[in-house]
Amino acid sequence: MQMSFDELLEIKTRLLINGVNAQINVPGTWKERTEHLYQHDSGEVPVFSYPQEIVLSPEAGVGQKTVVNVRYRRASPWKLIDRGGQPTLTGPSIGEIPVALAPRPNFYSRKLGTGVVVSQVVQMLGLDALGVIPNNYCAYFAERDECRFCEIEPSYREVGSYPSMRKSVDVISEGLRAALADDDAKHLVITAGNLKKNDRTATVYGDILGRVGFDSSRPVYRFGSLMAPESHERMEYMHRQGLDGVAYNLEFFREDQFTKLAPGKAKYGRKRLMEALEYARDTFGNGHVYTNLVYGVQSWEHSGKPIDFGKENAICLDAVEALLDAGILPLFTIYHTTGKNSMGRISIDEAAAIDFHREYGRLVAASGLVPSNRTGVLFNVSTISNHVYNDAFAAAFAASEQSGRSGPQSG
């Protein structure tokens, strides 16, 4: 029996919080773990290859297959096993359910002119998005002003697959052309650490888009996540070059948390960052401007003190309402660490996280900000495997009695 979007939201949330003990050797060409931006295991760094993503609802239609990232954790109560050649997920309350593994893209084994394998430059995110990281370097680390949850540089040093922290525009554009030629990707995600000048990062994003030469007969939604440029002109440049949607990430909603836990961004200024988001909204249009916040640490006080999740959810829901009122779509990352940041390990309350995301989905679906031709807040449930905002939106949309639709269609 096909599970509902709400049931899938609950399972996916628990898997992201608890991780998965992948014990599988199923024949086939599944997509192996390739670290994209952050390290996704629990810090154990397994020496064997394991699947990057599980398709929880393989029987669903295009754009409706719920995909979850495999965060390897040997002690997890959730296990991915081989049951007579059938990938199977076992865990609390579900017993066993048959699943599928995200397929390995054709372009992963191809080589660029430099001899670098394409998958070191471009990764497939979920089932239908290409992801590129122009650089795994962040200038905030050099000044010890990095966001306190961030592990971008430590992750690269331990598990990075590309020979250097930075990739040239030429290498990225060649990799994207190779990936676009082989696979029917519908979306592109560009995200990176911050160069010393935010304008420079924006210029790199725009240059990549201009160099690729996208086929106008094949629509690909192009999304970039970066720190807001110093100049509004650079924002407009990215848009002229073909960027469809953009995220400037607050990470923390309350100003005291923003100042304490995102010190590099605090130098730019929270007020200025909000003004940049509003300018982007007017440039890119409603439904195409986002900001990310980290769930589980909005109420954080210091290492070792448990999070009050009643307070956490209240702050997060206040943030959702305020941002939606400003015409900005909020995204949430559930806090995750491999032990390489200064905040340390935090126990996330699963029930509280699920409750928050259910209400989040309801608020976003009711806001009318998400374009009617889209089935998720950003892309769809088949695209973003390490967040649940699309799943929350799909669950809320499916439950809505006013929409007149039975739930998200393909897209």
Explain briefly what this protein structure is:
The chain has 411 residues and is an alpha/beta fold. It is 34% helix and 15% strand. It is built from twelve helices and 14 strands.
Could you explain how this protein is built, in words?
The chain folds into two domains: 5-101, no CATH class; 106-399, Alpha-Beta Barrel (TIM Barrel), CATH 3.20.20. Helix content is 34%, strand content 15%. It is built from twelve helices and 14 strands. Strands 8-9-10-11-12-13-14 form a seven-stranded mixed sheet. A four-stranded mixed sheet has the order 1-4-5-6, with no helix packed on it. A three-stranded antiparallel sheet has the order 3-2-7, covered by helices on one side. Strand 11 (221-225), helix 6 and strand 12 form a beta-alpha-beta unit. The longest helix is centred in the last third of the chain and has 18 residues, at 350-367. The two termini are 23 Å apart.
